[in-house]
Design a protein that fits this description.
By secondary structure, the protein is an alpha+beta fold. It contains 21 helices and 23 strands.
Length: about 525
């Protein structure tokens, strides 16, 4: 029986769901209203932005509801869009929306349409491709032998090179997402079985990926050979679950089983779970930014508590660059654990000297230049009772462009701070990322343009210090960085990229990864 795919079409006038089996629809004005403006530099531009989050469940009667809850727990990994695809033994059902998970997947009507006990879901912040509905994942394709839906966390560094080759050969792309490149490679494979085709496609891509995919009979998870992006396996009442972080298991009461290993493919079917390792093993290099910034602090990544790692970063920072002061103040929220660690190690009291407004979205008034200049005060406000007359140490997780740091420091002085010292719980970010973190080009990175004194003067603080690269590794439990075989992907600090940057550098495509084992 040929599988079918159903899509909702939105009635722009009433936002009612109108039955459709052929197309998507969305009000363009509503789409833009759901997204933060990238012109509002103070609020959104001067920060690292996460890649995406993925979730999949096989064989559970509440698959769609579990997926929505899991995506809600992963919302920090992507706030621009969310999508879920389900399968009910006959038809694939897809719901893809711009905006937050709770804005759309709390609707009974939406969830009722996601029938079946097999689901994959995705939350997105675009690092490759425009912010438009056709790029929202999971992406679906009808192939010879049945449909497949794919959700991808990461970024492929040779996607454009492959895309150009495929377009010249006659392929037609419907999105600008690098994830569609994987779908196209699967579709063009002449291998007889879907897993053969899947593995063949993965053998041709470079970069970072943690994938969840589903066919009518399988839930599939795959992690890139270096393990740059995280992917874990859990279970709920016997139903396998694949997701980006352990917090997505916690929210639904599921049990953690293990991490998917670098280069591993897992296949969940009615018969059980099968593991494949079709590619030559490589020295793992997971992304260190998962610990510094991206993962939720209550997640466990690589067997480490993210919260405890961030506290250790603060402790190491205090040992490396202590300074006399009256109070330690975090830049909320990501700087809080490091600030606790710094205060503990230094003996200087921890205080909440900056209060964050958690309800900031797009400004409700016309975003004139004056309003943009006030943007940081919409998000953060000084707690004058803590700051006034004090020598303060500001703790933040990172500095990207530095524009927000300038405004926060100015805000501290305006609140009466006697001295302001800034300490950063990551090394200086000197290089751009191409594996799924949305960083500016190198000429917009503060640390790539100034030395330490230049950065201090630009930000306007009395002193500035970053944790060293070896200090970062000590906080992770190592004596130092292994410069021959680095333990983590840390190119933003070192400039050492772990894979070829084929699209970026115009390098020729590397030879397809050889298969070590025949797929059963």
């Amino acid at each position: 029986m040929q599988n079918q795919l159903s899509f909702p079409l939105l009635d722009e006038a009433s936002d009612r769901d109108v039955s459709s089996s052929a197309s998507y629809g969305l009000d363009p004005a509503a789409t833009q209203a759901a997204l933060p403006s990238r012109d509002d530099d103070d609020l959104y531009a001067d920060t690292l932005r996460e890649e995406c989050g993925v979730f999949g469940v096989f064989g559970h009667p509440d698959a769609a509801a579990l997926t929505a809850l899991g995506l809600h727990a992963l919302q920090h990994r992507g706030q621009e869009a969310a999508g879920i695809v389900s399968f009910d033994d006959a038809t694939f059902h897809s719901e893809r929306r711009m905006g937050h998970v709770g804005d759309h997947f709390s609707s009974g009507k939406v969830m009722e349409r996601l029938k079946g006990d097999l689901c994959v879901g995705h939350v997105r912040y675009s690092t490759t491709g425009e912010t438009i509905l056709r790029n929202v994942q999971p992406l679906f394709a009808e192939l010879w032998g049945g449909g497949i839906a794919i959700a991808h966390n990461g970024n492929l560094t040779n996607a454009m090179t492959i895309r150009n080759e495929l377009v010249r050969a006659g392929s037609i792309f419907q999105s600008t997402s690098d994830t569609e490149t994987i779908l196209q490679l699967i579709a063009r494979s002449r291998a007889p079985r879907i897993m053969d085709r899947f593995v063949e496609a993965l053998g041709q891509i470079e970069g970072a990926y943690a994938l969840v995919a589903m066919t009518p009979k399988k839930l599939i998870g795959a992690r890139d050979p270096l393990g740059i992006r995280p992917l874990i396996l859990g279970t709920l009442n016997g139903a396998p679950i694949l997701c980006s972080e352990t917090v997505a298991l916690d929210i639904i009461g599921a049990e953690f089983v293990r991490e998917i290993e670098p280069g591993e493919i897992v296949i969940c079917t009615r018969e059980g779970i099968e593991s494949l390792r079709p590619f030559p093993p490589q020295h793992p290099r997971p992304c260190v930014f998962e610990y510094i910034y991206f993962a939720r602090p209550d997640s466990i990544v690589g067997g480490r508590s993210v919260y405890n790692v961030r506290k250790s970063l603060g402790q190491e920072l205090a040992r490396e660059s202590g300074v006399d002061a009256d109070v330690v103040i975090p830049v909320p929220d990501s700087g809080v654990p490091a600030a606790i660690g710094y205060a503990t190690e230094s003996g200087i009291p921890f205080e909440l000297g900056i209060i964050r407004n958690h309800y900031v979205g797009r400004t409700f008034i016309e975003p004139t230049q004056h309003i943009r200049q006030l943007g940081v005060k919409l998000k953060h406000n000084a707690n004058r009772a803590v700051v006034e007359g004090k020598r303060i140490i500001l703790i933040d997780d990172s500095i990207v462009r530095g524009t927000t740091s300038v405004k926060i420091v100015k805000m501290m002085y305006e609140a009466g701070a006697k001295e302001v010292h800034m300490r950063i719980a990551s090394p200086p970010i000197t290089h751009s990322d191409y594996y799924g973190i949305d960083t500016p080009e190198r000429d917009a990175l503060l640390a790539a343009q100034y030395d330490l004194e230049g950065m201090r003067a630009y930000i306007g603080v009395d002193s500035l210090a970053f944790i060293t690269v070896d200090g970062l590794y000590r906080a992770m439990g190592y004596a130092k960085r292994d410069n021959v075989n680095p333990q983590f992907t840390d190119h933003c600090f070192t400039g050492e990229y772990p894979t070829p940057l084929t699209d970026r550098n115009g390098e020729p495509r590397t030879r397809q990864l050889s298969l070590l084992a025949e797929i059963a």
